[in-house]
Specification:
By secondary structure, the protein is mainly α. The protein has one domain. The chain is built from five helices and no strands. The chain is rod-shaped.
Length: about 150
């Protein structure tokens, strides 16, 4: 009997440690996506401002190359963000399973019960606004390349 209790406590301790690690990795991913998207947006803003302030003239070929490079960079960033989102969602699903295994939803008055039952909260796009801002600043850069050069 004592051995079973010790085994259950050890299992719960391991599950709690794993849950902590999942929370930490989700936090790191959020921080990484926020930091990277802010840096990209500032760079796009700076390049757009620089193109509008300098009197550069691109011929048709140079303009096409600039737009092509911008499209390639945009594709790389969107693919990178999609990969981070996929990893984040996997971590979140594992954390949800660990929370269920630790009975965090089964108490008489559980704190996490509302969140578990709210499927919309689990399925929402955490980085929707980063995507929208990226689209906006890349669009501003395209306009600056097309109009001001």
């Amino acid at each position: 009997m004592v051995k079973e209790v010790k085994q259950e406590k050890l299992t719960n301790d391991i599950l709690m440690f794993q849950l902590q690690e999942r929370y930490h990795s989700m936090h790191v991913m959020r921080e990484r996506i926020q930091t990277l998207s802010l840096r990209i947006m500032w760079i796009l803003l700076w390049v757009s401002w620089w193109l509008t302030q300098n009197k550069l003239t691109f011929d048709c070929c140079e303009r096409n190359v600039a737009i092509l490079l911008t499209c390639i960079l945009f594709g790389i960033f969107i693919d990178y963000f999609a990969d981070l989102k996929k990893g984040f969602n996997k971590q979140m699903n594992i954390a949800k399973r660990l929370e269920s295994e630790l009975w965090l939803f089964e108490w008489e008055n559980p704190i996490l019960k509302e969140f578990k039952d709210n499927e919309r909260a689990w399925k929402r796009n955490a980085w929707k606004y980063q995507y929208l801002l990226m689209w906006f600043w890349f669009l501003v850069l395209f306009i600056c390349i097309l109009y001001f050069t």
